[in-house]
Amino acid sequence: MDDYRDDLEVQHRRPTATRPLLGLTVLVVEDSRFACDAMRLLCLRSGARIRRADCIKSARRHLQVYRPSVAIIDLGLPDGSGAELIAELAHTSPRIDVLLGTSGDSFSEDVAMAAGADGFLAKPIESVLVFQSKILSALPPERQPNGPRLVSDDPVRPDPMAYRDDMAHAADVLDERGDGRMLDYLAQFLRGVAHSAGDGSLQKAAEDLAEARAKGRPLQAVIARVAALIQDRLSDRVAI
Asked: What was the pLDDT predicted at 194?
């Protein structure tokens, strides 16, 4: 009887034309709730299960317990570079089938690939077709589904409340900033989240903060502008 149930479960989890990632588990290492909600929707449409870690330390705890089929790792994380985790996993045996880097920064693809990634997803990640193709093309041939795929490529629309969660996280980081490294992280985080959400004014303010940090300029005015923009979004005075 148990063998019969196992056979039914295997058949149920076989990839289909509309859900080609059935049977795969995707670990998303991502500090943005907004970006992670986009990943959740992409996995849902594709048939994959998703697990999330918001930093390198959390990802390592997950990986001590289970081995995902796919790991999608953001390059900018609060406790280090995602490239470090990609390099670590690329040399772990048995290796995770698919390692993908992700970022909104154009230079990050080269960093991810040099670390050992199998591919790269540029943010914002909205296309189901691109998402599935990046994963399927990196799978071993025996794990790839046969036949054509039937894909509805309507872009995914993450929950705006997830963006508000990201603003709350940014506000906490700003309140607790203790050194330049956290300001650098905040600028990178806000730049990526705002880019994914199409929030041009916040993205520009984050870029100005990063530039001021890099060039040693006074920070008080630009930090005040960033803080005001964050509070506007937390108060629902700005819609995305």
From this structure: 97
Tell me 179's DSSP state: S
Does the structure show a pLDDT above 90 at 13?
no
Contact 73, 98 (CB under 8 A): no
Angle at 164 between CA 163 and CA 166, to 5 degrees: 65
Reported pTM: 0.89
CB-count exposure of residue 21 (10 Å: 0-12, 13-18, 19+): buried
Strands (E), 32-106: 49-53, 70-74, 76-77, 80-81, 98-103
Backbone angles phi, psi at 55, to 5 degrees: -160, 170
Fold of 2-143: Rossmann fold (3.40.50)
- Domain boundary assignment for the chain: 2-143, 160-234
